[in-house]
């Protein structure tokens, strides 16, 4: 995350891996950039919980402008209005494979950054991952 996050002009990044949480499918924080651990912000999410869990459940990219980066709960930071968030699932043959990547920026992600991120998650989708 320390190489990927600045590469796409993001200020915060997190990679969540797919794991079982109390017998249910979920995601656990595996790596982060610009993340400050807080008691009020969880590091684990069940599918459907928060935006990261919703991305995992739906297996679809979530991209939005938010009023605060804390909207996702997995990237805890205060930000100016119009912060941008992108969450990408790592899906192979219709199933969440490795987990999900979440990136947040104070500026909108460029088309080139989004294309790069799509190609990155595509490369992570290989059956050997």
Descriptive overview:
By secondary structure, this protein is an alpha+beta fold. Helix content is 21%, strand content 38%. It has helices spanning 4-7, 50-58, 111-124; strands spanning 12-21, 24-33, 44-46, 62-66, 83-92, 95-105. The two termini are 17 Å apart. The model is unreliable at 75-82 (pLDDT under 50).
How would the blueprint of this fold be written?
Layout: H1 4-7, E1 12-21, E2 24-33, E3 44-46, H2 50-58, E4 62-66, E5 83-92, E6 95-105, H3 111-124
Antiparallel strand pairs: 1-2, 1-6, 2-3, 4-5, 5-6
Keyword list:
alpha+beta; 6 strands; 3 helices; Beta-Lactamase; 129 residues
Assembly type of the shown chains? Answer: single chain
How much of the sequence lies in strands comes to 35-45%
Number of strands: 6
Mean pLDDT reading: 82
Order of helices and strands: HEEEHEEEH
Question: How far apart are the termini?
Answer: 17 Å
Largest sheet: 6 strands, antiparallel
Counting structural domains, the number is 1
CATH architecture: 2-Layer Sandwich
Give the count of helical stretches: 3
Radius of gyration: 14 Å
Uncertain stretches of 5 or more adjacent residues: 75-82
CATH fold type: Beta-Lactamase
Let me know the CATH homologous superfamily. Answer: GAF domain
CA-based shape: globular
Spatial sequence of strands, sheet with the most strands: 3-2-1-6-5-4
CATH class: Alpha Beta
In terms of structural class, how would the helical and strand content be classed? alpha+beta
Helix percent band: 10-25%
